[in-house]
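Incident log, support desk, overnight shift.

02:14 A customer reports that sequence design results differ from what the structure should imply. Their input is reproduced verbatim below. On-call engineer (initials T.W.) acknowledged and began investigating.
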């Protein structure tokens, strides 16, 4: 894919942050398994990766705004453009030594995501998209799956943890969905869940309790790969609501009908 100057900057930043995270990931297994020590380590790795991304992006586009998980938002001199960044999506996986986490970078222009990068450094899979230019993984064009029968489809979601209030709703979703499908996966990284829908690995995905930096890049990947996405509650803002549902166009109506049947 011949990307824009902005996309090339984003790819460079993601790769540089990914290299830093891989070094830290290799040290995780040497940590004493305690929530305090290991958690503090991962927090430092997360913050260091975000700093790398911020330096790379803001040095080339200093007037853009900034929204990221580990730092305060910045209103840019150019109010129409904003970076939306999650330096380490899948922190719990990282902490436990599981190689399923990613760097997520999106560029928003006038409220719309126009460029996206999700980089799975552990597997060296670079998912990228630009508005109107398609979605790609390691130079290979991505398309959502073409499955149209629910019983043949595999879906992804997140399972609430730590006393989150959306547990009852999610359990109800699963009770309705599981009997009608080939399975549901919970791998713990929203950016990669969306990238996998774009790549046709999952047929659909839904989740509640998300943040803009979790999903901004992944949304464009799915869109440019031919998928369809809506807020889980119709009429809400897709980025700000924190709850979404997405799938290939063949299965979306059936899938969303099951999830929204409350």
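02:41 Re-run completed on a clean worker. Output:
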């Amino acid at each position: 894919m011949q990307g824009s100057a902005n996309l090339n900057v984003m790819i460079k930043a993601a790769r540089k942050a990914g290299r830093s995270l891989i070094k830290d990931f290799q040290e995780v297994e040497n940590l004493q398994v305690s929530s305090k020590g290991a958690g503090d380590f991962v927090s430092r790795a997360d913050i260091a990766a975000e700093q790398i991304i911020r330096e790379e992006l803001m040095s080339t586009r200093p007037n853009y705004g900034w929204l990221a998980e580990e730092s305060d938002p910045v209103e840019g001199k150019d109010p129409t453009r904003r970076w939306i960044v999650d330096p380490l999506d899948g922190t719990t996986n990282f902490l436990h030594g599981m190689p399923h986490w990613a760097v997520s970078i999106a560029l928003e222009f006038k409220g719309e995501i126009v460029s996206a990068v999700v980089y799975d450094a552990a597997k060296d899979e670079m998912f990228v998209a630009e508005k109107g230019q398609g979605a790609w993984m390691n130079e290979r064009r991505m398309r959502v799956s073409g499955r149209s029968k629910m019983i043949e489809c595999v879906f992804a979601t997140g399972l609430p943890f730590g006393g989150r209030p959306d547990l009852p709703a999610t359990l109800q979703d699963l009770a309705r969905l599981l009997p009608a499908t080939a399975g549901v996966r919970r791998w713990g990284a929203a950016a990669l869940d969306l990238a996998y829908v774009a790549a046709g690995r999952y047929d659909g995905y839904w989740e509640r309790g998300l943040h803009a930096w979790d999903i901004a890049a992944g949304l464009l990947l799915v869109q440019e790969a031919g998928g369809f996405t809506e807020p889980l509650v119709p009429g809400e803002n897709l980025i700000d609501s924190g709850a979404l549902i997405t799938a290939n166009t063949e299965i979306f109506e059936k899938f969303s009908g099951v999830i929204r049947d409350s």
